[in-house]
Amino acid sequence: MMKTRLAVWGLALLVLTGSAGVARAQSAPQVERMLDRVRTLTAPALAGRGAGSPELQAAGDTVAVWLAQLGLVPAFDGTWFQDFDLKGEGWSGNDLTGRRDRNVAGILPGVGHLAERYVVVGAHLDHLGRVDPTSAPGRLPGPDDYYPGANDNASGVTIVTEIIRLAATRQTDQTPRRSVVFVFFGGEEVGLQGSGRYVSQPPVALDLVDAMINFDTVGQISENRLYVSGLGTTPDFPALVEAANTDRLNLSLGQGGWSGSDHMNFNTREIPVLFVFGGPYLQYNRPSDTWDTLTPAGLVQVAAYGDRLLDLIRTHDRPLPWVMVAAKDLREGDTSGENRDTWFGSLPDFSEDVKGYKLGGIFDNSPAARSGLQKGDVLVGLGGREVTDLASFTHALRAHAPGDLVEVEVLREGRPLRFTVVLGNRTERK
């Protein structure tokens, strides 16, 4: 059965890439290698890689073995691991106090006069763990008992490991290149805690880091579309991002670097960032986010794109100064700078007096629907702004343009959840 699937995937690669199809059709071993990594990370034995869990520790051990096999150097004083204490609550409201988590990282040395400068490439390793975190940890969970997190974010981990393999093939090339720290963060799903620890105690001084690229939820590629944001955080990013797109991906580009994932902690430390994201998908934060829902040809495409993008940044022989990119600061009553075409795709519910914006309905195939939001959710934050009612929601929404990626915070039956929403244009509304 697997050989049949590989043959079909090889044919899909041939169709996708046109004249380059013969070479790409030979990449079935690459597809299988990447899917094997996703299957390993999403297996019942790792039970969804919940923050602070023994299973996440085991996943980190596995990734460290991969990094050693790929020839990297341990990043943290001779070890692959940076341990840290968690705080706050987990996905299911469980207390994380006293639990330990870890980042896993290795270094690929650079070449020549750029070797003392660095690029950080990251992906978060953790996901949501078990549906019932109080269930016996010694028992393997069934299919509906844990969140596999294939797309979010076993896909990102897999793509970054493939980028390492591709980048390592250039080590004999004497073209000057920056060094790279490849890091897999823990604690992303519980408040970006792993990347927060990394930037507070970095293995390489942050003033030596010229850029950070973050891969998150990149395993389902629809209509050949890939979202890349953060282009405004340094002047040369737009040209580099476009130059890397030799496979003619349909790139949806954003200027800001504030979408809710680990790159945010680097942006706040004045390091240029790029966030690579595959877009909303139906299985988001569900037990159905399994390896067989991914698009294998898309995994190959994103890895190849990421490899070209990283190498262009590594060999870029000019400084990459950080630029602050912020959402428009619209004051109450000032509508002169609002984007009235920006579309979210929801209807308000005025039946209850709640603090926030309660979703009374969601349009089919709208930005809100594609991101996994549901009727009854109470939206309390959008793009870093507090939402207390319909007016503040509208004000926060219009501070963004169609195509922007924004972090949305909601309460669902009292449980706080975070979603990344790709905002639309009102012309899309049917």
| Unreliable runs | 1-26, 327-336
Number of helical regions: 11
Number of strands: 17
CATH superfamily of the largest domain: Zn peptidases
Q: Kindly state the percentage of residues in helix.
A: 25-40%
Mean pLDDT: 87
The major pleated sheet works out as: 9 strands, mixed
Query: Which overall shape is indicated by the principal axes computed on the Cα atoms?
Result: globular
Order of helices and strands: HHHHEEEEHEHEEHEHEHEEEHEEHEEE
Radius of gyration, in Å, reads 21 Å
How many discrete structural domains?
2
User: Class by helix and strand content?
Assistant: alpha+beta
Residues in β-strands, percent = 15-25%
Distance between the termini: 41 Å
CATH topology (level 3) name of the largest domain: Aminopeptidase
What do these coordinates show?
The structure is a single chain. This protein has 2 domains: 2-315, Zn peptidases (Aminopeptidase, 3-Layer(aba) Sandwich); 342-428, Pdz3 Domain (Roll). The chain contains 11 helices and 17 strands. Helix content is 28%, strand content 21%. The strands form 3 sheets. Strands 1, 2, 3, 4, 5, 6, 7, 8 and 9 form a 9-stranded mixed sheet that branches. Strands 11, 12, 13, 14, 15 and 16 form a 6-stranded antiparallel sheet that branches. A hairpin with an 8-residue loop joins strand 11 and strand 12. With 430 residues, it is of the alpha+beta class. It is globular. The relative contact order is 0.12.
Key phrases:
Aminopeptidase; alpha+beta; 430 residues; Pdz3 Domain; disordered N terminus; globular
